[in-house]
Structure formats: C-alpha cells, structure tokens
Amino acid sequence: MIAKRIPMDKATLHFILEHANSDVHSLMLQAAKFPEVDMPLAVRQITGMQKVKNKIPTFYACKNLLYPVKLSLEQSSSEITAKHKSALCEGNVLADLTGGFGVDAYFFSFRFDNIIYVEKDPELCRLAEHNFKALNRKNITVINDTAENFLKKTDSVSWIFLDPARRTESGKKAVLFSDCEPNTVNLADELLSKTGHVMVKLSPMIDISVLCRELRNITEIQIVAVENECKEVIAILTDKASDAISIKTIHFPNSKPAETLDFDLNDEHNAVVRYADEVKTYLYEPNAAVLKSGAFKLTGERFGIDKLHINSHLYTSDRMDSDFPGRIFLVEKVYDFSKNSLKELQAEVKKSNITVRNFPVSVNELRKKLKISEGGYIYLFATTLKDGKKVLICCRKAK
Q1: Which domains does the chain have, with CATH numbers?
Q2: What are 112's strand-pairing partners?
C-alpha cells in the first residue's frame, strides 16, 4: 500500500449520491446543515463525478471511485482518446511515468499483462491505488516516484507512456517541451535505453514542425480530434530512426464513424495543389485534426478538389466525395463583400452559422454588421478566393 485508505463514511457517501447533480457552490454554503457530512470531500467527489460523467463514462459508472483536485481531472485523457491510445500498442509491461488520475493506465491495462503506474504526487497515488481496486484492475502496480528516478532504477519494458504536466509555475498552459514536466526532450535518450517504444501525449497546441525538429526518433505522429476539436497530439518514438515521419489524423464526430487521413511529411511536401477560379457546387471544410496536421496541399490532391486560396484551407468541387475527412456543404449562393451584396444577403438570410477563414473581419464583427442571428441550417463561410476577392459563401450541410 502507498498509504492508508482515504476514509468516506456512509453519511458522506449517501450525501454524494443524493446530490450528484447539485450545484457545488450552493452545497458548500449549506455545510452547517449537514454536520455529519465531510463537506469538502463531498464537494470534491460531486465535482469530479460531474466532470467525468460525459468525459469518462466508465469511471462515472463506478460509484466507489475517489476523485482528485480539479486540475488533475482537467488534464486527464477522455475515455475516447484513452481507448484510442490503448489500441495503438500491446505487450508485456507498459510503464506510465505520469500516472495522474489513471485514465490512460486503466485503458492500457486491457492491452498489457502488467502496467506500472508512476506518479510523484502521493495523494494521486493513494487515489489511484483505491480506484484501480474499485475498477477491478489487478494488473496495475502503483509506484510513488518521479519519472526520472523510476527510469534510473527500472529494467527494460515493452512500452513507456508519458503525459507531461503542461502548466507553467504561474499556472498558465504550457506548450514548449522546456515548460513541461518531465521534459521529454531531455529524457529521450534514457527513455529509449529502457524500451523500443515510447508514446508521448502532447498539447493540442504544439507546433508539428517544432515537434519534429526537437524530439528525435519520432516514427509516427497522431493527431486526435473529438467533435471537431483537436484534443491530443501523440508522438511515437522508437529505438530506430525513421527516414519519413508518418502522420495520422483521426476525428471522432458525434454519433458518426471516425474520419481518418494518413500521410507522411514527404507526401505533403511533394503534393501539387490546384486553385479554383470560382466556388463550385460543393464546399469542403477539413476537420480539426486535418487542419492541425498541415496537410493543406495533400488534402486537395488526395480528394481531387480545388483550394480556394493558399491561406483559406477551404476546397470546392462539382462532385461530392463522402469519404472526405470533414464537413461538406452544398453551395446555394456566393455574395461578394460589397455594400449592395451585403444588403441582399441581409434580406435573404436572417439566421446562420458563421465561419471565418482567411478573412479580415471576425465572426462577432461580421454577425453584428449583418444583423444575422446565430444558428439554423444555413452556413455562411466568409473567406478569400484565389484572386484575393472577399466573399461570403451561403450553403447547407451535405455531409
């Protein structure tokens, strides 16, 4: 055992289950009414349950789980991204050197004979040891130590996983390797001396070119988006250098099959893009993972569609390709950015979803200018064409 179990009496547990959907701030103000309840623990539990209800439904379903402070929950993987990472590897032993709330370790445990959960925070270790038992995962060993110390003492393992803490000392979100803990760049040699396979979860804001330049022995980069929001960038390192880095994008839309686009950096470099002279029947908008990957030329070449402008990252075609990784719209009308054309648009469109791409006016400014309310089934894309002309493309969803 790491330390004694965190106590929770029956009164506190009953209170938590009774108030699982209540406002936690109101509960704190009512603490005097419930002297038999450990209110700080109850509030932490209720806050945790509310945060994982949709993010990690498997954990939410286990009513005996104990939850950490808010930050550890915010930084933890979601169930859909943790399952995706676990599907990328398997073997005898995986060492998770940044255990945290234990979501990744839990899902990895179904793919490996043994999981070593390493975490420097003793409180998180106590929670993890309790939670893994509650979740009936008997093949996870909890170790309270730093990643650096563990590496010095351990033998070889099948895989190593890291999710470096991405917060600066001031509490701001960190992107650079030098601001993360542990610093994966500094640890790379020691990591690869212990295993042939390293998986690193990185900030969705990281620059892919910086990642490729600073972290050696990368063979694959995966960019994961959920409901069109980029959630994770995953780098896979091996003990053998690769001539070309494989890029894989995967997007999990809501209630739809996953969208993927696979390529390597040479493919994008060598791709030839065509630019459209006009907006055609369909407008194509790549999903967030594809946009993050930088496959702007390759997307047009791979699907035989024309780009509107070098910086717009929107495409057009007279045919519809339902395999396209993103949204497809049926174009109804194209308005220029002249005063008369905008008056015509105002008369014809009263409600719309507005997207701005390579355009000098923000969404809020444009909505205010046009006096168009938000929502509905009409989509307006404000963008720039090949010749520099500013337009608003009115369309409806085709996919």
Answers
A1: 10-55 (no CATH), 73-242 (3.40.50.150), 273-397 (3.30.2130)
A2: 91
